[in-house]
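Quick one:
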Amino acid sequence: MNIEYKAQKEFTEKELQDLFLSVEWYLGQYPDKLVIAMQNSSAVFTAWDGDKLVGLISAIADGATTAYLPNLLVDPRYQHLGIGQKLLNMMIDQYKEYLGIVLIADKGKASFYECCGFEVEKTQVPIFRISRWG
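Output:
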């Protein structure tokens, strides 16, 4: 298996839908919105096995102080191969001059991010106002 990494913002709805649904993310039900979201992201890095999108990370950045990472996903058939860590490291390198990189992770994935140098915030909580996510 030869995984190729790219900085890319152009996707088909099907490519994004297949990846997001492979990890059971509700956003996969809105592939048209995912295409727009990726095009409007500050940075997107992807992992490809041939012509199959197998991993993706995206960032929304303010240009100087903070980059937010709303998406890091790897197709389950490609997990535990270092793809997620490679994508995360690419994004960390992209924003190394920023004061902070912020993400919200599933509690079950916190140890992965801690191994990558992130700290679980003990005094703050994420607050959401989401109208359609399941």
